[in-house]
Design brief:
By secondary structure, the chain is of the alpha+beta class. Helices cover about 10% and strands about 20% of the residues. It contains one helix and two strands; from the N terminus they run ββα. The chain has a two-stranded antiparallel ribbon. The longest helix is centred in the N-terminal third of the chain and has 6 residues. The model has no long low-confidence stretch (mean pLDDT about 80).
């Protein structure tokens, strides 16, 4: 289950795929992993994903 959000107010509950399909704003999360030497873990997304495929921005 996903939340449909606008300006941090929940407008309703929809599945994530519906929010993406209808181009509605929805919450996401990100994690940055660093090692002791300051290196950053970079994840390359699959080219088949609908949003930001294969590392595009």
């Amino acid at each position: 289950m996903s939340e449909l959000v606008e300006h941090d107010h929940v407008l309703g509950i929809v599945e994530r795929d519906e929010a993406v399909r209808e181009n509605r704003p929805h919450r996401i999360a990100a994690t940055i992993c660093r090692d002791r030497e300051g290196g950053i873990l970079v994840l390359r997304r699959a080219g088949t994903l609908s949003r930001f495929p294969a590392g595009t921005t």
